[in-house]
Specification:
- This protein has a five-stranded parallel sheet, with helices on both faces.
- The longest helix is centred in the last third of the chain and has 30 residues, at 215-244.
- With 276 residues, it is an alpha/beta fold.
- The protein folds into two domains: 8-81 and 149-204 and 228-269, Rossmann fold (3-Layer(aba) Sandwich), CATH 3.40.50; 84-146 and 207-225, no CATH class.
- It has helices at residues 19-29, 38-44, 62-68, 82-95, 102-106, 110-119, 127-140, 148-151, 159-167, 178-188, 215-244, 264-269; strands spanning 8-12, 34-35, 55-58, 73-79, 171-174.
- The protein is 46% helix and 8% strand.
- α7 packs across α11.
């Protein structure tokens, strides 16, 4: 793989949106000049030299990244369907209270530990229990599960500001269309590679009773994600717009792989698109 040395990329790693897969992909593209989880390094070293990297990833907000880097860096971010996102996030916290997670449990802040333990008292297949848990969260004073994706664009959860900041991000993608997104970014950065799809990583298979297809469940979860829904819709439209405006877009995929674009009608609109 050969990288384009003229472009440096910062990935705003919104949790639970395919970030581990994105990191693994670009660590292969930039094997010697990639730095992931930069937020941890910044806590240890205030004078961290970022100039020697071509790809950096971290759980940092848009304002934090903008203040940290010079304008030559391009920014990238991914989002996730909001109902799936908030359930994944809650299941991640709940899993910390499982018996096989004792060591991992101890690594997390006390408030996360308390929430994980408290979650064991609820049956999340019951809408009333979801409502009771959210009420308990509010009483506990923990608001991080409320519109978490919006936080990464606007820490104060101002949706207008979040949308404005989104417009300033060069590459906007979603977990649900991660292959589409990474193929598009690779093309725009002139990366010479054979694209075989994003690696699948860091997947929690346990849902603890949550069913996002259930109408009552979605009704109870909605207050946690109403701003995220607006942001996600904007991200989807942005990704479609970026792909459709890209002339001569081609990507190599192995035979048998799902089509690079999930929507065949979009594919027909892209001139010179080649599917292998």
């Amino acid at each position: 793989m050969k990288k384009n040395t003229k472009t440096r990329l910062f990935y705003i790693h919104t949790p639970k949106t395919g970030g581990t897969s994105v990191n693994q992909y670009f660590m292969k593209v930039y094997p010697e000049t990639a730095l992931v989880h930069v937020e941890a390094d910044l806590k240890k070293e205030t004078n961290l030299d970022l100039s020697k990297y071509d790809f950096i990833s971290g759980h940092l907000t848009f304002p934090a990244v903008s203040s940290l880097l010079d304008p030559s860096w391009r920014k990238m971010v991914t989002f996730r369907e909001p109902y799936s996102f908030v359930v994944s996030h809650m299941c991640w916290i709940r899993r910390l209270a499982d018996e096989d997670q004792r060591e991992n449990f101890q690594k997390h802040p006390e408030n996360i530990q308390k929430i994980a333990v408290k979650m064991k008292e609820f049956d999340f297949s019951i809408a009333g229990d979801i409502r009771s848990f959210i009420s308990w969260l509010e009483e506990f004073g923990f608001s991080y599960l409320h519109n978490t994706q919006t936080i990464f664009m606007s820490p104060k959860k101002n949706i207008k500001r979040a949308l404005l900041n989104l417009d300033s991000v060069e590459f906007v993608g979603t977990l649900e269309r991660l292959d589409d997104f990474l193929a598009y970014v690779s093309y725009k950065l002139s990366l010479e590679l054979t694209f075989h799809g994003a690696p699948i990583a860091n997947v929690n298979r346990r849902n603890y009773g949550f069913n996002i297809d259930d109408t009552e469940t979605r009704k109870e979860l909605y207050p946690l994600i109403k701003k995220d829904i607006v942001l996600y819709d904007a991200a989807l439209k942005r990704l479609d717009k970026d792909i459709l405006s890209c002339k001569g877009f081609s990507v190599e995929l192995p035979l048998g792989k799902k089509t690079f674009l999930h929507n065949l009608r979009l594919m027909e609109k892209i001139k010179n698109f080649k599917f292998y």
